[in-house]
Design the sequence.
């Protein structure tokens, strides 16, 4: 089901129907804003073992929040992502 942009311009968010396993799908325009931003984030993680380790530990620490509040889980990653991207 379409769920708007989730507060991120250039992205559309979709969630599963209640009768399906929980998942999220994000669509972005190839080669534009949010696509380039997330591709750059991916590339920075690939290039830095230290960043990969830090991000992995952060996600493990936040993982219990997925069962309670996915938005809080996502917000918990935002500072790290922005810092790595130099935003």
Sequence:
């Amino acid at each position: 089901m379409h769920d708007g942009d989730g507060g991120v311009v250039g992205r559309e968010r979709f969630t599963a129907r209640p009768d399906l396993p929980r998942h999220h799908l994000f669509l972005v325009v190839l080669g534009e804003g949010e696509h380039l931003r997330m591709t750059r984030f991916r590339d920075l993680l690939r290039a830095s073992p230290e960043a990969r380790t830090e991000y992995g530990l952060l996600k493990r620490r936040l993982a219990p929040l997925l069962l309670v509040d996915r938005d809080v889980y996502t917000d918990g990653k935002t500072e790290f992502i922005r810092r790595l991207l130099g935003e």
